């Protein structure tokens, strides 16, 4: 078989995880240096349709390992289904997203085959005549190290999601698709996943939240924060704020954002009565869209905002809430989803967060 | 029910200072502590222990690691042991897992092994699966919630962006935990005093019936440590259907520094609220999300 | 080190492993007593603000000869600089001390980083045989049938532990001393709040910027506009590869002026006289702590049946303009308390009367004498005119004196008259302040 570099293309609810595309693109760059092809591996049930996307991001070949029993993740199942294929492929390098799932099965394979496996990778490259070189984060990101593998055997690298980013797809690329339907021994699956639960904006950790509504000193007090909480619920966002708001006790202490608080990376960040001090901004640099409401037109946050509203939040907020809540209640074609977001924490969708652990006896 | 917890002593992140030029850590300022993720694992183990159960705490590390094993003893674990050998040198995750597995075999195999998710130093959360491989047990990682159900454990696992998976695993198993931080319980005063100078058994290679070759595992060579340099991220994909001019503008406005966003100044609060709604709608934040 | 035995009762229980507590525990353990040293922090020093000028070298040298050779010290102090500031100018007194005892052993003062220093000091007490327990908060005292203090209760299960003498070294706002009625609640005007940062900076830059060589260090103290109209001052010390700097503000005036302490600190760092000193330095730690400031006048009774109070808990912190000295007095009073406890154990007498020897020991260790001598200083330092007006006047006077702008130059006397008019200074008040200053510092 032709020499190749393998990528584990993780999926999430039937779609490719962005982290998988990052791995494919990183793999593409390395493969070009090595003069080998990029082979992306899918594992699941009916995943082959994703091959076009993988090709558009750089895969030359896609192998879809399919079985109904693989519809949901199982570490034992993945090992059983993918090990033979990988063994045969004998990749020069294997890339996978650094996710909990990869960490549950790939290290075992590395140990079995006595190959090095490196997690927390930031960048994978090639030095000299084709030796893998990896830059990884240590000490929680406070430090980095550069590792080199001076042998001809393979290396497993787990790439930290979100570090590389994803290029626009190249529609003209295509890949050779192979579907494999291995025999699997279901009894040997010692771990099984029943289902996937969507995230609940009300309980999600701020650093994972997709949307955040944030309040500062300008919110004026607990009443202001209560309004912001309502706004958060109606747009399906988590509530956060500044250190000052937390110091005043308007906000739980694990919910303030900034260099000494949470570092967040939501797609939507809505700031009300937040001045935008350096220590606060340091926590939101990776945010997508920023909406800021502040009555001081010189407030630094306004210069960082995609939508900067110079006005009094105490006047704007009640109207905004009324409008959004009315839209949601009316089930307006455009906004039915708002209601949906607000109720997405339906009891059966998210396990009650309260009784965390059943204590034995 | 016998639970083992794996505890690592790591530099307290708040004392880790990295030289901005060389990337070296100022070792003389570092204080060591129990790996925060392992503190949660330890507390969970103690909560899970039934009346007739036992908890064993293990750590691979030099003598300084006795402090954290004594902390564990004071908090109520039944046994603690440390694994170390002067011949070990710097240890890698693979060797850690071999040593832990051997120690578990020597001290009596438990029904469940709890590990932290990540060690705060150079770790990458691979020890749990590696250990499971050595024991030939199943493993799950990023476990956020945990419940015993007969010969199984029912768990939730963390997925990207706040989503969770509900899984089940047959015991005995190894779990890598990713709990919201659980604080270790307060030890009683007598237990604290007893544990303060309690002897901690140390298992060397000989006691574990291992030879240095058993630990010889391939690992990449460390060439350099450096201060954190963020990688330039492919940030923003301009809309390919837009005109070249618009695409350039799009790229420019997505920069990390000041944005040339839309400014709404003046107008009634009503109009301002309307502007916000329009904006959210335009950017797709009011679009239907896929049903969970 | 021999592991001390686990026991249910001790001769001496020392609460708080700061400079006062660790010194007291060290001396008691050396005398062969069974000593329990209790600290609420995860390790001694964990809760202590992180940098300090330590002027107790000679005292410590008595206990641990050439202690600086093994202790984590940053630099020895060979220069002290006192600056009066307005918002744009500063006038400084620069004291360079190259003499005997300053740059040679036992050295007059060292700059230390408290978390490391306190840990080291407590380890010395442990090595001498004291039983140190950290992460252990003392919540209450135990009393025997006659109402005498007979031990402490810690915030843990089965937390009662008995001791013949309890030495409270639990710092300013001592919970223990209040519990037994040896200390009243402080008034806000008797307390200051210190906020402090440690900023990392390359040693070569420090030496260059502050004109230091080798292990030399400098201590700066500031008065005036730094704290705006909040009463207080500021300081900056050079560590080996970092700077410790902070602002101290009287609690009552912080509250009155609605100032957030870290705003003052930011202001201080931005002052034109300070900004160049801290340029390029990177924040390592941030902390805040109270300081007792009223000196002798807030002195509580320092002993009762079965208990002694030492260090900041007893108000032994000299925070008066030229001085910010607490660690040395903490150690001196800790030693005096230990000596008292050792005698008490020898004679097996623990009544208030027997422990009254503490007063004599404090005098012998120069603690009470110093505090009596400087009893007027805090009130003077905290007077509004000294805090806000004079530094401004001095700084602005100097500014006008040195200004060259083509206008006719004023001689000093007319300038002074002009300044007095400008700032509405009354000669009588100035005379009184002058007298007070002399009373505070000269005799
Ligand atoms: C060492 C250190 C670390 C710090 N770390 C953090 C950190 O991690 N995170 C953090 O957030 N802060 C941190 N801070 C504090 C930070 O410097 C700022 O003080 C803080 O972020 C300001 O919070 P704020 O925006 O809520 O308050 P302010 O700065 O007081 O701003 C309030 C804003 O609300 C606006 N406003 C007032 N009324 C209205 C109204 N009716 N309608 C609309 N707008 C209104 C005002 O114009 C103003 O811009 C730190 C400070 C220090 C010294
Ligand atoms: C910003 C600032 C700068 C200063 N700079 C200087 C300086 O440059 N030079 C100088 O000499 N002095 C300085 N001081 C004063 C000096 O810090 C104190 O005077 C000195 O630390 C007093 O020592 P101590 O042992 O009495 O108390 P502390 O050092 O306060 O120690 C008390 C200990 O008791 C522990 N404790 C408290 N309550 C309990 C409890 N209930 N149970 C168990 N443990 C408890 C605490 O955790 C602490 O470790 C400064 C103070 C501040 C705030
Ligand atoms: N030296 C060690 N001793 C004991 N347990 C360890 C050790 N190293 C790692 N572990 C366990 O494995 C988990 C994951 O570590 P790592 O793979 O190093 O990130 C930790 O949280 C610990 O529970």
Brief sketch in words of this structure:
With 361 residues, chain A is α/β, with parallel strands linked by helices. Chain A has helices at 18-34, 51-56, 75-89, 100-113, 222-235, 243-247, 278-281, 300-304, 313-330, 336-342, and strands spanning 4-8, 11-12, 15-16, 37-44, 61-66, 94-97, 117-127, 131-138, 143-148, 156-159, 176-180, 191-197, 211-215, 238-241, 268-272, 289-294, 307-310.
Helix-strand blueprint:
The complex is a heterotrimer of chains A (361), B (292) and C (443).
Chain A: E1 4-8, E2 11-12, E3 15-16, H1 18-34, E4 37-44, H2 51-56, E5 61-66, H3 75-89, E6 94-97, H4 100-113, E7 117-127, E8 131-138, E9 143-148, E10 156-159, E11 176-180, E12 191-197, E13 211-215, H5 222-235, E14 238-241, H6 243-247, E15 268-272, H7 278-281, E16 289-294, H8 300-304, E17 307-310, H9 313-330, H10 336-342
Parallel strand pairs in A: 1-4, 1-6, 4-5, 5-11, 6-10, 7-10, 13-14, 13-15, 15-16, 16-17
Antiparallel strand pairs in A: 2-3, 7-8, 8-9
Chain B: E1 2-6, E2 9-11, E3 32-34, H1 36-48, E4 54-60, H2 66-75, E5 79-83, H3 93-107, E6 112-115, H4 127-135, E7 139-149, E8 152-158, E9 164-170, E10 173-177, H5 189-196, E11 202-203, E12 221-226, H6 244-253, E13 262-265, H7 269-282
Helix pairs in contact in B: 2-5, 3-4
Chain C: E1 9-15, H1 19-30, E2 35-38, E3 52-54, H2 57-63, E4 73-85, E5 90-96, E6 110-112, H3 114-127, E7 131-133, E8 138-143, E9 149-154, E10 160-168, H4 175-179, E11 191-200, H5 203-209, E12 216-224, E13 232-238, E14 242-250, H6 251-256, H7 261-270, H8 275-278, E15 282-292, E16 303-304, E17 307-309, E18 318-320, E19 323-325, H9 327-347, H10 352-355, H11 357-364, H12 367-373, H13 377-381, H14 384-402, H15 412-422, H16 427-441
Parallel strand pairs in C: 1-2, 1-10, 2-7, 4-12, 10-17
Antiparallel strand pairs in C: 3-6, 4-5, 4-6, 8-9, 9-10, 11-14, 11-15, 12-13, 13-14, 16-17, 18-19
Helix pairs in contact in C: 1-3, 1-9, 9-11, 14-15
The complex binds flavin-adenine dinucleotide (FAD) (2 copies) and adenosine monophosphate (AMP).
Helix content of chain A: 25-40%
Task: Give the averaged pLDDT of chain A, no decimals.
Answer: 87
Shape of chain A: elongated
**Class by helix and strand content of chain A?**
alpha/beta
What is the level 1 CATH name of the largest domain in chain C?
Alpha Beta
Through-space gap between termini of chain C: 49 Å
